[in-house]
């Protein structure tokens, strides 16, 4: 929420929003014609399943747009964990990541 508006802050490649053309900074106004608020967004999304296509009304650059969003399976989440015992090659890669 920003100033009472439901704003998309991140869009991940391969996700439903990205594949449907939604962008960061788009304001979500409604889903399937029903107004969406911070309080009811999660409950509204529970009404739908993977494979459903929903119509999302957004406000982008002052213009209202309707976007059909195909609900895709959630993206996989990966986690990098440092191991306690490392060989020389692993130490080299780790240092490269940390030094950027």
Give an overview of the whole structure.
It contains three helices and four strands. The chain has a single domain, classed as Pdz3 Domain (Roll), CATH 2.30.42. The model has no long low-confidence stretch (mean pLDDT 90). It has a four-stranded antiparallel sheet with strand order 2-1-3-4. It has 100 residues and is an alpha+beta fold. 22% of the residues lie in helices and 23% in strands.
Domain module count: 1
Task: Tell me the quaternary state.
Answer: single chain
Q: Based on the structure given, which CATH architecture is correct?
A: Roll
Coarse shape:
elongated
Record field, number of beta strands: 4
Rg, Cα atoms, Å: 19 Å
Secondary structural class: alpha+beta
As laid out across the biggest beta sheet, the strand order is 2-1-3-4
Summarize, please.
The chain has 100 residues and is of the alpha+beta class.
Q: Can you give keywords for this protein?
A:
100 residues, alpha+beta, Pdz3 Domain, four-stranded antiparallel β-sheet, 22% helix, elongated
What is the fold's blueprint, element by element?
Elements: H1 16-20, E1 27-31, E2 34-35, H2 41-45, E3 53-60, E4 63-70, H3 88-99
Antiparallel strand pairs: 1-2, 1-3, 3-4
